[in-house]
Each structure stands twice: as structure tokens, then as C-alpha cells.
Amino acid sequence: MADTSQLTSGVAERYASSLFELALEQGAVESVTKDLEQFQAMMDESDDLKRFVSSPVFSAEDQLKAIIAISEKAGISGFFANFLKVVARNRRLFALPGMIKAFRIIAANQRGEITAEVASAHALTAAQETELKAALKGVTGKDVAIAVTVDPSILGGLIVKVGSRQIDTSLRTKLSTLKLALKEVG
Fold first, then answer.
1. For the range 51-54, what are the long-range contacts, defined as Cβ-Cβ under 8 Å and sequence gap of 24 or more?
2. According to the model, what pLDDT value does residue 127 have?
3. What are the percentages of helix, strand and coil residues in the chain, rounded to 5?
């Protein structure tokens, strides 16, 4: 049986690539990115929206009606609103978080940047983001776009993923390591 995460990833990458190509043709990459970021923020803030996006229970018609209403209320229009409608109509909303992530990576590559995924226990301030970007640029030698997600379960510190590298300075990991070390001693 096929790995569902790989299937989701493939679907997400194809949709994101198509959206980027269309936006690039029309000179709308910046506006699509802004709408995409807004929708991602809405999903981050609403557990109900996350459940709706990931749930297979809703029919394509219900998903389409809801996406239209959400887009209109949020002021999302143009390419990204049409994209959301196509995704809902094709019953691919479950892959939307992956599509957003893939679009960010494609757009960053187009700008000559690399993307770093950052998980933090608390929201980062603008100064912290700037400092982190500068540190990552020093390590990678390229401009870095960061996508920050808040994950209170890491307790403190950061988990930074750049390409295939991951730097985990989270308190959760440090505590787990300490717990293992104490088990070995006792």
C-alpha cells in the first residue's frame, strides 16, 4: 500500500507548482503569496478551519460553499481564491497545508532564497526573526525566508529545518535526552 504522506506531498507539489506558474505568468506572485499567508494564518488560529480542511466528511459541494464564504469574508480574491475553489471542487483540501508549504519553497527558490521551517514554543518577535535570518544566512550563504510555526509542546528553544538539515535546540528534546541519560545511570 502507498504511503499517504508521499501521495499528499505529490498532490501538494503539483498543485503548488501549477499555481506558481499561473501567478508568474500573470505577474501575481506577490498577491498570491500575501493571500496564501493570510489563509495560513487563519488556519493557524482556527482549530475548526484546520479540521474542516483535513476532514473527508464534507462533500465537495459543501467544501466549495464554505471555501467561497471563507474567502469572501477574509477578502481573499483573484488567483488564490480561484485556486481554493479548484482545490475544494477536486476534494483536495486535505493537501492544502502541503500546497502552501510547497508554494513558499517554489517562490523562495525563484527569488534565490532558501526556506527554513522554524518551530518555536512562542511567537517570535520581528527582532528575533531578523536575527535568526541573519544567523541562517551566515551558515548557508544565501538569503533565507523563514516560515515560523508555534508549537507549545517543544516547551522552549527552536527546531530549525533548512533543506535536509535540522537543528533541534528545543527544551523537549533536551529533557528527553537527559531522561535517557538518567535511565542509563540508574
1. 52/93, 53/93, 53/94, 53/96, 53/97, 54/93, 54/94
2. 94
3. 70, 15, 20
- Residues 6 or more apart whose CB falls under 8 angstroms from that of 52 comprise 58, 63, 66, 93
Distance CA 118, CA 185 (A): 33
Q: What is the pLDDT of residue 2?
A: 43
Q: Averaged in consecutive runs of 10 residues, what is the pLDDT profile of the chain (186 residues)?
A: 51 92 91 90 87 86 90 87 92 91 87 87 91 90 86 90 88 88 80
Considering the domain architecture, whether residues 155 and 174 belong to the same structural domain is answered as: yes
Look up the domain containing 159 and give its range: 112-185
Backbone angles phi and psi of 46, in degrees to 5: -125, 110
Q: What is the CATH number of the domain that holds 45?
A: 1.10.520.20
Count of domains for the chain: 2
- Residue keyed to cell 535568526: 132
Do 13 and 102 lie in one domain? The reply is: yes
